[in-house]
């Protein structure tokens, strides 16, 4: 037999809500067995700036390849890396 779920209280601000959820278990308020997986397809992935040292001749070759495709060379590098690690 399932326990009745508690109602979620009203919060005056985000700080109050954060404190509540840090001290209380969400399973007392929500039936997670009915949860459904969702995808937020319009979110942009977080990017991180890195420093990458390449031999000048390699960078020049990448820039020539990018120019032939009419894309920025940094974008071409990202596409190639993504293809190589199979992230889709």
User: How much of the polypeptide forms β-strand, as a percent range?
Assistant: under 5%
- In round numbers, the mean pLDDT is 90
Q: Helix/strand/pairing class, anyone?
A: mainly alpha
Parts with pLDDT < 50 across at least 5 consecutive residues: none
Q: The biggest beta sheet, please? A: none
Distance between the termini: 43 Å
Summarize the structure.
The chain is mainly alpha-helical. Helices cover 42% and strands 0% of the residues.
Describe the structure using short key phrases.
single chain; 88 residues; mainly alpha; 3 helices
Structure characterization notes:
With 88 residues, the protein is mainly α. The chain has one domain. It is 42% helix and 0% strand. The chain is built from three helices and no strands. The mean pLDDT is 90.
Blueprint (SSEs and pairs):
Layout: H1 14-23, H2 56-69, H3 73-85
Helix pairs in contact: 2-3
């Amino acid at each position: 037999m399932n326990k009745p779920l508690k109602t979620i209280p009203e919060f005056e601000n985000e700080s109050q809500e954060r404190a509540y959820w840090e001290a209380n278990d969400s399973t007392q308020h929500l039936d997670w067995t009915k949860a459904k997986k969702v995808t937020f397809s319009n979110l942009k992935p977080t990017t991180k700036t890195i420093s990458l040292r390449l031999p000048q001749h390699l960078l020049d070759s990448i820039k020539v390849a990018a120019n032939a495709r009419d894309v920025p060379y940094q974008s071409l590098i990202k596409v190639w890396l993504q293809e190589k690690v199979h992230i889709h």
